[in-house]
Each structure stands twice: as C-alpha cells, then as structure tokens.
Amino acid sequence: MRFGVPLMLLALTGCPGAFYFGEPDGGAGCGDRACPAGLVCSASATCVECTSSADCSTPMAMCLATSGRCVQCVGDADCGAGHFCEPVTHHCLQRCREDDECVSDRCAQTRTPAICVDCRGAGDCPAASGAPVCDPERGTCVRCASDAQCSGAGLRCDRITGTCRECVSAADCDGGACARDGHCLRAR
Q: What is the CB-side half-sphere exposure of residue 164 using CA atoms within 13 A?
C-alpha cells in the first residue's frame, strides 16, 4: 500500500504517455528487466525494437541495426527477384519497365530505377482515404512523408510506416523508450 497515494496522484495528474519502471540504478543502463515488453536493450543502453532480426516478425522481419527498428529489408538480398530495398523507407519495391508489368498498372519510369507504384502524386491519394500523401520514395499512399504533414504538437512522421507518431526513436522521448506503436514510455 506504500505506493497507493503516489500512483493515485500520478493517475489524477493526467501525465501523457505510459511509464515503465527501470532498474534500481535509476535507468543508467538497461537490462532485460528495464525495457518494456516488446523492446530490447541495445548496446548503447537504449530500449529499442530490435538488436537482431530474431527480435522482429513478418512483415517487418529484418532489424535495421543503426536505428534498432524492425523493417521489411536492409538490403536488396532481403527482397525477391525483380525487387530492391528502398534505402529510406526500407521496403521491397518492384522494378519495372512498362505499366503492364505492375499489378497497379503504374510504372514510375521517371525514377531510377523505375518502380511499380500505387500513386504518382498527391492527386492519386484521396484525403478521405486516411492516407492523403503519395510517398515519393515508394509510390504508396500514406498518412505522411515528412514531419510537416503531421498535425499536432510534437508528432513525427515515421518514414518506415508512413504514419504520424509521438516518437520514431528513443531520442524523441526525453530519456524514455519509444514503443513499437510510436508512443513514448517514460522511465520512472
């Protein structure tokens, strides 16, 4: 019962984000117990989505070690024949020469390499769809392709998912961790 009053006060203050409780050392380092469920401790003592691909699952089954994020691919070898790994969003994209090679019947031939796309510009992504922006890297309708397209204080565009989130890495969380769903988990 010793924690009853402080926890009740915490609940009544309406603090944004969730909290996790770290090691007794005040969070100076993270061990398996310091990171919230679904996150792992990196070599830099930061809670991240992954440190190896074993921490990831389909469709984002590869670990991008430089960011500790699960992605679809980190290199062309992670993609099937006729596909390549786009280096900004880390998605496998299909190469093409003509529109009829694509399921969408749209080959963006002005790109190098030319890729199959769902959209070529903003006019191809209706606002009512909830994904009004044509991602210039992968030619897919998404919620955002830059931070400027996210409304709301402090929201960031996650280029991997094309969605607006509170965080895309632990660096966005004032010493806390960034959960897989993009909200900050603050250390207490």
A: 16
